[in-house]
């Protein structure tokens, strides 16, 4: 069975984006962009929902730095609102249940899988026990007044075991965790 990595970029206060701010909060350091470009995961299928697809394909079309490398990568979009043909190259649309489809993909894929954004998709995959690695790049900004897309709202309680970390220039922090979904807070017996 292949590994599934959930990937997020977030502000320190847990937002995935902010009104009026540029992509990557204007802090896409050359070192971070080089790390993205050199990633051995270039050929791993990227899973995303329709909102992320619409945003990222528009950014790629506009020439946003760092998005050009996504064009050649295999992408899978889970959506009941999009229809084919999709305009972004190397993108396949899945209209069936995402959890069932990802479970099958993990069993059948020749390569590990990863996500791109897609807050609700990642939340449902985590709840279903399909996430093997949780990778977060924390950007050193607080966007309390303008932040949108709070990443962790609606998540179950999750214990995270840190397996790797790195600091990029500009103070960006890469954190990789193995997640364990909890039934509730540790030390509290389940009632019933």
Automatic annotation (TrEMBL):
This is Dihydrofolate reductase. Transmembrane segments: none annotated. GO terms for biological process: riboflavin biosynthetic process. It holds the Pfam family RibD_C. One of its GO terms (molecular function) is 5-amino-6-(5-phosphoribosylamino)uracil reductase activity. Residues 4-173 form the Bacterial bifunctional deaminase-reductase C-terminal domain. It comes from the Bacteria. InterPro entries: DHFR-like_dom_sf, RibDG_C, Riboflavin_Biosynth_HTPR. SUPFAM superfamilies: Dihydrofolate reductase-like. Gene3D superfamilies: Dihydrofolate Reductase, subunit A.
């Amino acid at each position: 069975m292949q590994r599934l990595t959930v990937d997020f970029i977030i502000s320190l206060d847990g937002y995935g984006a902010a009104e009026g701010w540029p992509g990557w909060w204007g802090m896409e350091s050359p070192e971070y962009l080089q790390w993205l470009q050199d990633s051995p995961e270039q050929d791993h299928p990227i899973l995303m929902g329709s909102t992320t697809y619409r945003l990222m394909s528009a950014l790629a079309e506009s020439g946003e730095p760092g998005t050009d490398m996504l064009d050649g990568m295999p992408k899978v979009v889970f959506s009941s609102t999009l229809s084919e043909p999709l305009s972004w190259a190397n993108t396949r649309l899945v209209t069936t249940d995402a959890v069932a489809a990802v479970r099958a993909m993990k069993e059948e894929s020749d390569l590990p899988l990863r996500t791109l954004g897609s807050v609700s998709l990642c939340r449902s995959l985590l709840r279903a026990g399909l996430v093997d690695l949780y990778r977060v790049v924390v950007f050193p900004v607080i966007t309390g007044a303008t932040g949108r897309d709070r990443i962790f709202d609606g998540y179950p309680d999750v214990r995270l075991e840190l397996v790797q970390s790195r600091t990029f220039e500009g103070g960006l922090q890469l954190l990789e965790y193995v997640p364990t979904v909890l039934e509730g807070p540790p030390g509290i017996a389940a009632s019933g």
